[in-house]
Specification:
The complex is a heterodimer of chains A (110) and B (112). Chain A has 110 residues and is an all-beta fold. Chain A contains no helices and 11 strands. Classes of the chains: A mainly beta (110), B mainly beta (112).
């Protein structure tokens, strides 16, 4: 079983659409959870950390369900600039290496 | 905003040659990492470095790989005898805390 699993997409959505990405992880002892964004041939950049209580940053909302080992990211009012690959990332314990999913590709179309 | 700087941005080398990838982490960060990403694949952990020694390494990080912090600013990854399958993007990262990872822009290594 893959450690962090994501739907690879691509998700092709029109501008203004709402899109949701899902991710599951296999290590129930994982402590920290993140969504990163990666543009083509660029480095991963932290989009947001994910907390059990859920958290929101502007148009982006992240949720964590520890019981189901499931993480989600919701993007509202999609912009062309949101086109990228979204990486679900998990850390098993404090300050240990990040475990990346393969990513979900999003294309926002005018 | 502080940056992690990596050089070169692209390196082409012949199979069997040694390469050194260079990184300048953010100055007040304590933890340093190398990750790699083969084209079309996920980002994979190679090694972490803390207090002048390797703190953790993956099964990818075999005897062909080594890391060094030769002075107070640089952090290098050496591949002793490159193989075709070493072709990938190599990302350096540094952090002060778990939420503070910053990745460099990467070195694209092409082994021919």
């Amino acid at each position: 079983r893959k450690e962090v699993e994501q739907d690879p997409g691509p998700f092709n959505v029109p501008e203004g659409a709402t899109v949701a990405f899902n991710c599951t992880y296999s290590n129930s002892a994982s402590q920290s959870f993140f969504w990163y964004r990666q543009d083509c041939r660029k480095e991963p950049k932290l989009l947001m950390s994910v907390y059990s209580s859920g958290n929101e940053d502007g148009r982006f909302t992240a949720q964590l369900n520890r019981a189901s080992q499931y993480i989600s990211l919701l993007i509202r009012d999609s912009k062309l600039s949101d086109s990228a690959t979204y990486l679900c990332v998990v850390s098993p314990r404090g300050n240990t290496p990040l475990v990346f999913g393969k990513g979900t590709r999003l294309s926002v179309i005018a | 905003e502080p940056e992690v700087t990596q050089t070169p941005s692209h390196q082409v080398t012949q199979m069997g040659q040694e390469v050194i990838l260079r990184c300048v982490p953010i100055s007040n960060h304590l933890y340093f990492y190398w990750y790699r990403q083969i084209l079309g694949q996920k980002v994979e952990f190679l090694v972490s470095f803390y207090n002048n020694e390797i703190s953790e390494k993956s099964e990818i990080f075999d005897d062909q790989f080594s890391v060094e912090r030769p002075d107070g600013s640089n952090f290098t990854l050496k591949i002793r005898s490159t193989k075709l399958e070493d072709s990938a993007m190599y990302f350096c990262a540094s952090s002060q805390s778990l939420d503070g990872y910053t990745f460099g822009s990467g070195t694209r290594l092409t082994v021919v």
